[in-house]
Design brief:
Mean pLDDT: 94
Strand order of the largest sheet: 1-2-4-3
Number of helices: 8
Number of domains: 2
Helix content: 55-70%
Strand content: 5-15%
Distance between the termini: 19 Å
Length: 201
């Protein structure tokens, strides 16, 4: 299933996130972007995403053998937040258009792993593999393996992969999961997912 991705402003969520960011004393001088600035970012994000959407969504099915459960996926853009998340998908308007595409792809992989038509019980899978790692690391081993396959096997873009890994350098769990994908091999991580899928049929 290839879903329709709708990138939109988060008019009701945005004040909550602005208040949250401002509540941190370290951000006392921070001023949120204007509505015009956010809408400008959203327009740029839509245009950049549109260049790659079909290839990304079809590529995700190709590398994971999973299809999205949802026909429509809303992507909410807010002025700022601590980090993006996937349910619902919320992303801050702080990225360049190119980086936004990679961040959105990351969140869509989360969604694909946890809500797919094949009915993979991702939580159960995580309880059986990489036992010694904490849950955040285990989750991102699979997310990053799928994303690496997309970068290399669909887009043939090693530089973009390297940039993604560099962005994760300050996040311990992300960096550890990238290291484990490198050590294990992304194709081997994906084979774990595909064996789980085969076992259902």
């Amino acid at each position: 299933m290839i879903p329709k991705i709708i990138i939109k402003p988060a008019y009701f969520l945005d004040p909550v996130f602005i208040g949250y960011v401002k509540s941190n004393p370290r951000n006392k001088d921070w001023e949120p972007p204007t509505d015009k600035e956010v809408l400008g970012k959203i327009d740029a994000y839509r245009k950049e995403w549109g260049k790659h959407e079909s290839k990304i969504l079809e590529g995700l099915f190709k590398v994971s053998c999973l299809s999205f459960y949802d026909n429509v996926i809303d992507v909410y853009i807010v002025s700022a937040c601590k980090s993006p998340f996937s349910d619902p998908i919320v992303i801050p308007a702080t990225y360049t258009p190119e980086t936004f595409v990679d961040v959105l792809t990351h969140e869509l992989i989360h969604r694909l792993l946890t809500r797919n038509r094949e009915g993979i019980d991702f939580e159960n899978l995580l309880s059986q593999v990489f036992i010694e790692e904490d849950n955040k690391v285990k989750v991102h081993i699979f997310v990053h393996a799928v994303h690496q396959a997309l970068y290399l096997d669909v887009f043939n873009d090693k530089i973009r992969l390297e940039k993604d890994i560099e962005r994760s350098a300050h996040m311990t769990s992300y960096q550890k999961s990238w290291d484990l994908v490198d050590k294990t091999g992304y194709t081997n991580v994906l084979s774990i997912l595909k064996e789980k899928l085969k076992a259902r049929y």
